[in-house]
Design brief:
heterotrimer, A mainly alpha (291), B alpha+beta (431), C mainly alpha (294), B: 431 residues, alpha+beta, D-Maltodextrin-Binding Protein, domain 2, 2 domains, eight-stranded mixed sheet, 21 helices, 10 strands, 13% strand, C: 294 residues, MetI-like fold, 13 helices, flat
């Protein structure tokens, strides 16, 4: 009997192994996602009765300047943060990719920004950004520079917020790239040296291609999370001044939880999901192409 | 004849005695003994005040109370989730009628308490509704029916530095908007702003509305459309923007009450305008620097062209519509807001909603006289419409907030307000 | 020895031979420059923490002072407030239980799934599981609240554990896929040929060989669960209030208590930091295994 069960299990292993996980995910996710789609087809002010309006919310979003502003801000934020994290992450990885005393401690310390509680860190940054009372302006003045309004300035709000994101997540990129760097065999560099290559050429033609796949994975991970960033923005600026730093995620949250327009909020979330999906599929294709 | 009279008197006396004994026994604090109730509270000084007193209530009534407190944003979300989905595990909550009253009433999420009040077995004979500030109690009335009781009366005051005024040669706190502007110009020196006020969008509306009203503006026209694009409203916003842009601190567009109060407490602003509740910050040595603590003065809102028209913000307690224990919840509410407890609350720094609390000798001794006077003057003429009397309050505030930010950034006031009014009218039309 | 970019100079690594004095000086300057750069990077990474720690030892007036108060008499009042007035130890316990349960269930369900994806190259399934992380988390809030309320599961560990799975399980699966791919097929085949079932092979051969990856994945799942507060806000109650919520206790109607906030933040981050220190080796290899092979 046990034999037959074991054979049945073996024959169908590729379905049975993932089954519990898939069931859990389907139950937990499918329901809410479908509910979200259902709600997005209605005009529903929480406390009132929902009214079916088909694709009305989606049409409304497309003609809503605030929606486009949210979309723009989402990509603006990601477009600054992620490339910066990739470049800085690479720099830090190269910097730390050598033998020195205290290597382990340094690696641990560099993990800290991403394991700290996001809400607490965001509040501390908010205090540091304060134009009158914050320590960042104190440093600027001490260096003889002009004080900044930081997040209180419409033009600077998103760039200033990306500083927080870059601080928090560069370490993650650095670690991924560091491991990749350590996987590059030193013979490649020896060969290049013999061929007369200088440091920059070695970097361009040996280092970079070797870490490509790791870099793409780091890129995908960060891009997905950056597009969905919520804590930093909501805690520090609430999307302000005005809507200068209001990303689509923050706009959807306000629409649903502060303005109580559940239907419209649901449609905004679907737009965001499509955007994130699109970006991850696009970046995923980078993974497949031959190195 | 006499015997009959005596007999009659005796009978009357007996009946009267019996009746009075009966009515004294009719209201029983222990009526709901054994029940458990749960209230959702905002993380508010009142909550800090009442929480330690809860064991008193539990002993008095035998009702077990859980008070769950969250910071304001989360509190509102949680309360909305529970009230809107008919949670019967929620018995009551703190509520600001000015912010969510219309929405909660319209959706039927609060339970009127008139039946309890009218029932002598359900209501403490000492409740004395007339003791509450009229305006405060009125915010809890709808169509003549009562749906809760107020716990505080908040209004905004001018906080000012008496020492800086003296140094600048200004005799007393400004009483008109023109004086306010002139004083701010004189007081702005170095990194000390002449005047500071909230500017961070939606959260600033509860303060600027004081200016709006004092310039003769209002939220709505008689026909229910937005009046924010009116001439008076433009005047108010232009004045406010000029004041802050010229004599205010850097970055007002990201300032809410924590930034405004911290600025004053750190001596970086000569005047601020914000809630009277923040007096506790300015008198606390661990929150304000000495020179501020020793020189803070309070004055009511300066008068604009249309007079002095402050608004009053009221928090209170209400019973959840789906509660399984509305009676017990009502018991908690009337106990928490009793004369004794409101007196104690005021002494603890919560601007109580009962007039009797403000008239006690202990209070007169502990509170600065100018603060008390400024509060009472404001309460007397306070307008409860610190928010528009509509359902989608947050969206309207957000629209006005966008105009405020635009004005603070130097953009022309009229188009900004017209845009706000347009958005608001759309929002109202969609209801 | 001066190293070419991206290389680790070892004892027999690439480099020039013994150099003349000029080269030696250049090398020293270069090394000094590198050390300076490293210090700058570390200072930048650590400064907000340093600020947080300072904040936790100062009172409100010092914390909001426009001129930073570097030297002061430290006060333990904030820490006392956090632990005493806010039942902090209880919150820590709640968080610990939730994170452990979520990670445990995540492993139980996720390890077999990751193995299947690795072994049978089910890339579609892998991407589908990633979808859980792609969806903005607020999408889940209201439906989950309504569903769990209907099941009377608000303020229970069941609800919180189940929902934290959304954050932790895709992470576990994604990391473990690469580790499982590393396990030599022949070992598995050998066991199979000897008559062991797939499941037994999985448990007795594959899992032990991937132990470092499992440790890394578990720790990361634990950390992300520990820091999660959005779901907890909606689904928790007094019996399950997790520790990030404690930070919010210092934000009230009348003040934002930065000292208390800082102390709470330090106390919340501390267990995670200690955990990180203890297993940082594994985290590095865990994160990077997934990346380099993925």
């Amino acid at each position: 009997m046990a034999e037959r069960a074991a054979r049945f299990f073996d024959r169908n292993a590729q379905w049975l192994f993932p089954l519990p996980a898939v069931v859990a995910i389907v139950i937990l996710i499918l329901g809410p996602v479908l509910a979200n789609v259902y709600i997005s087809l209605h005009d529903w002010f929480i406390g009132g009765t929902p009214k079916f309006i088909g694709l009305g919310n989606f049409g409304r979003a497309l003609s809503d300047l605030r929606f486009w502003n949210g979309l723009k801000n989402t990509f603006y934020f990601t477009g600054i943060a992620v490339p910066a994290e990739m470049v800085l992450g690479l720099g830090v990885a190269v910097l730390f990719n050598r033998d020195f005393r205290g290597k382990a401690l340094v690696r641990t310390v560099s993990l800290l920004p991403m394991v700290a509680t996001p809400v607490a860190i965001a509040l501390i940054w908010a205090l540091m950004f304060n134009p009158s009372l914050g320590v960042l302006n104190y440093f600027l003045e001490a260096l003889g520079l002009h004080r900044s309004l930081w997040v209180a300035n419409s033009q600077l709000a998103i760039p200033a917020l990306t500083i927080v994101d870059i601080w928090e997540w560069t370490p993650m990129v650095a670690l991924i790239l560091l491991a990749a760097l350590q996987g590059v065999p030193s013979e490649h560099y020896e060969a290049a040296l013999i061929d007369g290559a200088g440091p920059w050429q070695a970097f361009r033609f040996i280092t970079l291609p070797s870490i490509r796949s790791a870099a793409v994975v780091a890129l995908i991970l960060r891009a997905i999370d950056a597009l969905k960033t919520f804590d930093i923005i909501y805690v520090i600026t609430q999307g302000g001044p005005g809507t200068a730093s209001e990303t689509l995620n923050v706009f959807a949250f306000k629409t649903g939880f502060e303005f109580f327009r559940a239907g419209y909020a649901a449609s905004l979330l679907i737009f965001l999901l499509v955007a994130v999906l699109g970006v991850s599929i696009l970046l995923n294709s980078l993974r497949r192409s031959p190195a | 004849m006499r015997r009959r009279l005596i007999g009659f008197l005796l009978l009357a006396g007996l009946l009267f005695g019996a009746l009075s004994m009966a009515s004294a026994q009719q209201f029983d604090w222990q009526k709901y003994s054994g029940t458990k109730i749960r209230f959702l509270m905002d993380q508010h000084p009142f909550t800090d005040f009442i929480k330690p007193l809860v064991p008193e209530f539990e002993k008095l009534t035998g009702i077990q109370v859980t008070l769950e407190a969250y910071p304001e944003n989360q509190f509102r979300q949680r309360r909305l989730l529970e009230a809107s989905s008919g949670a019967d595990t929620l018995d009551g909550y703190m509520i600001m009628p000015g912010q969510v009253g219309a929405q909660y009433l319209g959706a039927g999420w609060v339970r009127y308490v008139d039946d309890f009040i009218a029932d002598p077995t359900m209501t403490d004979p000492n409740l004395d509704l007339s003791d509450f500030f009229g305006g405060a109690l009125n915010t809890f009335k709808n169509d003549g029916k009562i749906y809760g009781l107020p716990l505080q009366n908040e209004t905004s005051l001018l906080f000012y530095r008496k020492d800086l005024f003296q140094q600048a040669g200004i005799g007393r706190a400004p009483t008109t908007m023109a004086e306010l502007l002139a004083d701010a110009a004189l007081l702005k020196k170095g990194n000390v702003a002449g005047f500071a006020m909230r500017g961070g969008g939606a959260n600033a509306t509860s303060q600027i509305v004081n200016f709006l009203m004092s310039f003769g503006g209002d939220w709505l026209n008689a026909d229910g459309t937005s009046a924010l694009d009116s001439y008076q409203s433009q005047q108010a916003l232009a004045f406010y923007a000029d004041l802050l842009r010229n004599y205010g601190p850097p970055g007002p567009t990201n300032m809410s009450w924590p930034e405004v109060t911290s600025l004053f407490a750190q001596g970086r602003a000569a005047m601020i305008f914000d809630g009277n509740v923040f007096r506790s910050i300015m008198e606390d040595p661990s929150q304000a620097i000495d020179v501020v603590r020793n020189n803070v003065g309070y004055a009511p809102l300066p008068a604009g062209p249309a007079g002095m028209k402050p608004v009053v913000l009221v928090w209170g307690l209400a019973v959840n519509h789906a509660s399984k224990n509305p009676g017990a919840a009502w018991y908690f509410i009337q106990w928490a807001l009793s004369k004794t407890n409101q007196e104690k609350a005021l002494l603890a720094g919560v601007p109580a909603a009962r007039t009797s609390a403000w008239n006690t000798p202990e209070f007169a001794q502990t509170a600065p006289a100018d603060w008390t006077k400024a509060c009472q003057e404001s309460f007397a003429v306070g307008n409860p419409n610190w928010n528009p009397p509509v359902v989608p309050v947050p969206e309207v505030r957000d629209a006005y907030g966008q105009a405020i930010v635009a004005a603070l950034e130097g953009k022309p006031v009229a188009p900004a307000l017209q845009q706000a009014a347009k958005t608001i009218n759309q929002v109202l039309a969609n209801q | 020895m001066s190293a070419l970019p991206g290389t680790t100079p070892g004892p027999t690594g690439p480099g020039r031979r013994a150099t003349p004095a000029g080269d030696k000086r250049r090398r020293r300057i270069r090394q000094a420059g590198i050390v300076v750069l490293m210090v700058i990077v570390l200072v930048i990474m650590l400064f907000p923490f340093y600020w947080m720690i300072l904040t936790s030892f100062r009172n409100q007036v010092a914390n909001t002072s426009p001129v930073p108060v570097w030297f002061f008499k430290p006060t333990l009042e904030n820490y006392a407030n956090v632990i005493g007035q806010n039942n902090f130890l209880a919150y820590t316990l709640h968080s610990f239980i939730i994170a452990t349960l979520a990670t445990g269930v995540g492993l139980l369900l996720g390890l077999p799934a990751a193995y299947s994806i690795a072994r049978y190259k089910q890339n579609g399934l892998a991407f589908a599981i990633l979808l859980a992380r792609l969806t903005p988390y607020i999408t889940y809030l209201v439906p989950w609240y309504l569903a769990f309320r209907a099941l009377h599961l608000i303020d229970t560990y069941v609800a919180l554990t189940a929902t934290h799975l959304i954050v932790g399980m895709p992470l576990i699966i994604w990391i473990m896929i690469s580790f499982f791919e590393e396990v030599p097929r022949d070992l598995e085949e050998a066991a199979y040929v000897d008559g062991a079932s797939r499941f037994a092979t999985f448990v007795r051969i594959v899992l032990p060989l991937s132990a470092p990856g499992i440790v890394a994945a578990s720790i990361l799942s634990f950390i992300f669960s520990w820091n999660q507060f959005l779901f907890s806000l909606v689904l928790s109650g007094p019996n399950t209030k997790p520790v990030p919520v404690a930070v919010f206790n210092f934000i009230s109607y009348g003040e934002i208590n930065f000292g208390g906030l800082g102390a709470a933040a330090v106390l919340i981050t501390l267990p995670v930091v200690l955990l990180t220190l203890a297993i940082q080796r594994y985290i590095v290899s865990g994160l990077t295994m997934g990346a380099v092979k993925g």
